[in-house]
Amino acid sequence: MNRILDKLKNHPGILLIAVALLLPFALLLNIGLMPLISDEPTRAIVTLEMILSGNYITPTINGEFYYNKPPLFNWILAGFVQISGKQDEFIFRLPTIISLVLSAFSIFLFSRKALGKYDAVIAALMLVTSARILFWDSFQGLIDVTYALITFGSFAALYHFSEGKKYLLMFLFTYTMAAAGYLMKGLPSVAFQGISLLAWMMHEKSFRKLFTFQHLAGIAVFLLITGTYYYAYLQTNSLQDVFSTLLDQSNRINDKDGTPLSWFSHLFVFPFEMAYEFAPWTLLLLLLFDRDVRRRTFEQKFFRYCLLIFLSNIIIYWVSADMRPRYLFMLFPLLFIILTKAWREALRLQTRMSGFIGLLFLLMIVAALLSLLIYPFWKETMHLPGIATIIPVLFIVTGFSVFAAVKLPQFRIWFLVIALLSVRIGFNAFNLPARYNSYPDAGYRQGEVTTGRLSRGHDLFILGDTPFNHDASFYISRERGSIVRRTWEISDKRTCYITDEKNLANFADKLRKYEVLHKFSIKLNESRLYLIRR
């Protein structure tokens, strides 16, 4: 065992190989199992209707214009669908996995000169293994990880080109990325671009650069890209509701259901909530209370840049009561880079806080080891396939991590990463199937799939104000291969309708004779619906 430890000590690249072997299983195993949840069905149905209608410019849901988000992310999803020929959950979630890996690689490229290659890998892995991403957003087909990749790329380009005094390239590249971000999520990209440029140019005493032809060229590129899209948009729809909706979607200052007291409480709770969401690495913030660690960390201009961009942009979210952690994915890589540097400096100084945090990391690795023992004894998972093989392997890997973390405390972060990936693999292999078997989502999906299949060959409409969610829209439209629209009229032709009891009663005199083909429930208020054929 000592020989193995000596090998690890002298060849830390072995730890990187171990992480690389675990990562595909942690990110990909069973990610297509669960039905689409959260905002995933919205992204999926917009994409599907683009493909079905051939209209990639004006997004729709149930054939009605959808204004909340521009279509770039849907174009990306549509590309994956067209290349793979599939419209399943795995394909809609795969862009998130790829974007997360590319984000980690971008962090590595951006920070390797300042941190060194091994610490740059650690900073990258902090993003992947932070609690919010590892156990939630990394297996959902949402827009935020991909959007964060684009926005962080702009932050990196701003520093890289400004350091080389290549201001024309700086403005052209960052405004191109801002335009891409705008076409993905709207106005937040304008805020990120404006705040970051203003903060950094003022810090560098280069404020006058904002009034040069180079800056005007960057703005022109932004307007050209976004203007070209809106010119194409005007060919099929007006812009009357587009910008007002984007502005409303970007306004997170007020929580529509909140009070002034809840807003003030948010100001206090926000730092602690973010520390929780991006744990365990936010524990390293404690290191910055040490003056010597702080001084050494921010001696280099690079780390001062990361701090400035992080603080200047996060203020908007700090004062926004209606805020979700996934909106910050582009900012936390900057903090993780700083915290990696602080950890390295604290180890060099052998501070008490670094010893305390190292102990906490060791306890977390032990907790990760013990958590794996739940699955063989939990009734929901104890009989699942692979329980007798996967858990022992993960237990050995994590158990060795505990032992090695004790013997090689300088590599404790690496062993915590390995332990977290092992826990995620166990989560994928057993927790997700347990959820699938016990949650009602699979039943909702099956009812919607059956509805789509039974209505093939007939026109299908949602009748009146029958409650209907994006989950049902996607799965029914996918099975039919056509868009499901809403109607307030009864056709004379042989037609299928989706209705609830209220609308069935309201349209009874016009429906007259009808046949109930299927009864099913959707997730929206667990509404009971009927598929009828007239």
Structural topology:
Layout: H1 2-10, H2 13-28, H3 40-53, E1 60-61, E2 64-65, H4 72-84, H5 89-115, H6 117-129, H7 131-134, H8 144-163, H9 167-185, H10 188-203, H11 213-233, H12 242-250, H13 260-277, H14 291-297, H15 301-318, H16 332-349, H17 352-371, H18 390-407, H19 412-438, H20 441-454, E3 459-463, H21 470-480, E4 485-487, E5 495-499, H22 501-506, H23 508-511, E6 515-521, E7 528-533
Parallel strand pairs: 3-4, 3-5
Antiparallel strand pairs: 1-2, 5-7, 6-7
What would your notes on this structure say?
- The protein has 534 residues and is mainly alpha-helical.
- It folds into three domains: 31-345, no CATH class; 355-438, no CATH class; 442-533, D-Maltodextrin-Binding Protein, domain 2, CATH 3.40.190.
- Helices cover 64% and strands 6% of the residues.
- It contains 23 helices and seven strands.
- The protein has a five-stranded mixed beta sheet. Strands 1-2 form a two-stranded antiparallel ribbon.
- Strand 1 and strand 2 form a beta hairpin.
- Helix 9 packs parallel to helix 11 (213-233).
- It is globular.
- The relative contact order is 0.10.
